[in-house]
Specification:
alpha+beta; Aminopeptidase; twelve-stranded mixed β-sheet; 8 helices
Length: 258
Amino acid sequence: MANGMRRIERSERRRLAPLFEATEAPRTVVACVVQGHGGVLSVDDVAEPRVAHIKLGPFAILAGDAEAPAARAAIAALPPWAIVLGPSAEWGRLILAEHPRASLGRRTSFTLRDRDADALQAMVSRVPAGCRVERIDLRLARRIGDEVDGALIFPPVFEDPEDFVARSVGYCAVERHSIVAGATAAVPYDGGFGIQVNTNETRRGNGLATAVSAALILHALREGVEPHWDTASVVSAGLARKLGYAPTGTYDTVALRG
């Protein structure tokens, strides 16, 4: 227990899904945590919960009754660097009252509309000479965090590279002997996943993010699962559109500042 909030074991979370039905936060994050794939879910009362929150890395979601006695405890339990996704007006006002230095923002969710496998395969093929796209096996999973970005093997979901390879999938661009870009199913949920994509700063602008993302999307189409895209970045939004995504809506965020 922390600040009056009680953590719920992964196997016991699904019954709490109704608490999150009204949130504007992306369903990928909610489903990943509620279905027990990763993250932390806490409630004020195990038997009769009125307030709940999700933590998944830097992201947090507050749900339930913002006027309940435990609402302030739920906010107090948030990490000082948390980004709260899709808070209701009531939760937003309460967060800002407790964290007046917090900054407001917006994110956009996308869905894959153009499912042209030939076009995606062409994107995979357009990599610079000396570069190739590979599925991430255990050998590559052990390296990609150091060579590209640790968020690709998302620590709030996966215990280690072995866990990632056992439960998820990703593709990377290898240039000679170095990994220079990657796209992974970083936020898995039943029937789909949220995509994380990163490219080394010195190799950006060469189509590598496009190639590895297209390879991952092709995998999703073959397996019949949904590859979800969600971002606050204009550059990432442009990449999503290039890959065949269309925006489905935006939602508010509140970034805490300690």
